[in-house]
Design goal:
By secondary structure, the protein is of the alpha/beta class. It folds into 2 domains: 178 residues, Rossmann fold; 180 residues, Glycogen Phosphorylase B (Rossmann fold), CATH 3.40.50. The chain contains 14 helices and 12 strands. A 6-stranded parallel beta sheet has the order 2-1-3-4-5-6, with helices on both faces. The chain has a 6-stranded parallel beta sheet with strand order 9-8-7-10-11-12, with helices on both faces. Strand 5, helix 6 and strand 6 form a beta-alpha-beta unit.
Length: 368
């Protein structure tokens, strides 16, 4: 029996990384037993990556719980998702791992947030040296895509695995998904993600303005997600108002479960123009493909591994002109939307099911 101690955040908040860790904790493996010490540094999207005194106390409570488990369970292997390129969670990792890594013979780092290596490369040499000592030489480093920054290589992981995420098929209850091919009808576009500049939502608003300026009026954008700050909410809402898009753009807030999937089932395609510095995969892209939706996304990190020319469009980051062109093309091409959507669901079934993901994770654990 292989005993794995997962130290990681599970929902809330309902973000990709936390939900993937929840799937791992809930998984049933034949020769692997999962223990879990829950991290709960952020209960909402707004608090992610931000300092608070409460988080310091929580950090030391995690250390104590890890020690207790380590004393009662033999041959535990530490599984941990390192921080992305943000100073506050990196400092948290350095303190936490300083105390807990020495009591484990083997460590698995799963780089669910990408880019820590790029961030550290720009920092003073002493900080790089200390970080490499704390994070350095894990038994296994897992990355979601070979296109992501080489975080596992940077920390000299003894083995490196590339394992894409996989999701349960939440579209099954909505199949068959049939949409009208009538030209000129209202076309519904979806954006999903935490609302901050790096997710590309401002670029998407600019692209919609360009589309409308050319006479295209039969579109509606649904924006699903929570703002990461009141300042950015004020900025984006004002932008929508100034561009005259108040009747075109609808902010839904953060939705989960059936309320979330109802929108996936009714919209016509997804726009995800991210250039977020922690982006590694983009679960929302896979969710859209699950629901037979074409996807317009950026050539950023692991996303080109998911979206192909048969399932959608890949565009340069921060390019509202090209984004507007692709939006117009999908809005005016019902047959193309249908064809891409069918291909997208097939690609999801072949490559991104939860079953396939967990088999790859089990094989990785067995390699220890």
């Amino acid at each position: 029996m292989i005993n794995i101690l997962v130290v990681g955040q599970t929902p809330p908040p309902y973000i990709g990384q936390a939900m993937m860790i929840q799937r791992l904790v809930n998984a049933s493996f034949s020769n692997i037993k999962i223990f879990h010490v829950r991290m709960a540094f952020s209960e909402t999207e707004k608090s992610i990556g931000k300092f608070s005194i409460k988080k310091i106390f929580h950090l030391f409570s995690i250390i104590i719980r890890v020690y207790k488990l380590r004393l009662t369970q033999k041959n535990l292997i530490l599984y941990y998702p390192p921080a992305g390129p943000n100073l506050t969670p990196i400092l948290r990792d350095l303190v936490l791992l300083f105390f807990i890594r020495p009591v484990f013979k083997k460590t698995i780092f799963h780089f669910r947030a990408a880019g820590i290596s790029e961030y550290l490369n720009g920092k003073p040499k002493f900080f790089q040296f200390f970080s490499k000592k704390i994070y350095g030489k894990p038994s296994i480093g897992i990355q979601l895509s070979s296109l992501n920054p080489k975080d596992a290589w940077y920390f000299q992981a003894k083995k490196i695995f590339y394992i894409p995420n996989g999701l349960e098929d939440d579209a099954l209850n909505y199949l068959p998904i049939k949409k009208s091919l009538e030209r000129g009808r209202l076309i519904k576009i979806l954006f999903v993600g935490i609302l901050l500049e790096g997710k590309g939502i401002s670029c998407l608003i600019d692209a919609l303005h360009l589309v409308l300026s050319k006479g295209q009026r039969n579109i509606k954008l649904y924006v699903m997600g929570q703002f990461n700050s009141d300042e950015y909410k004020h900025e984006l809402v004002n932008k929508v108002s100034k561009l005259g898009l108040g009747d075109i753009v609808e902010f839904l807030g953060s939705l989960n479960g059936k309320a979330k999937w109802e929108y996936f089932a009714q919209v016509d395609f997804l726009c995800f123009p991210t250039f977020f510095n922690s982006e590694s995969f983009g679960n929302v892209v896979v969710e859209a493909m699950m629901f037979q939706l074409p996807v317009i996304a950026t050539k950023w990190r692991g996303i080109p591994d998911i979206v192909t020319e048969e399932t959608g469009f890949l565009i340069p980051i921060k390019n509202s002109e090209i984004l507007a062109e692709k939006i117009s093309l999908l809005v005016n091409s019902p047959d193309l939307r249908m064809k891409m959507g069918v291909n997208a669901r097939q690609r999801f079934l072949e490559h991104y099911s939860l079953k396939k993901h967990l088999i790859e994770m089990e094989n990785m654990f067995q390699s220890l």
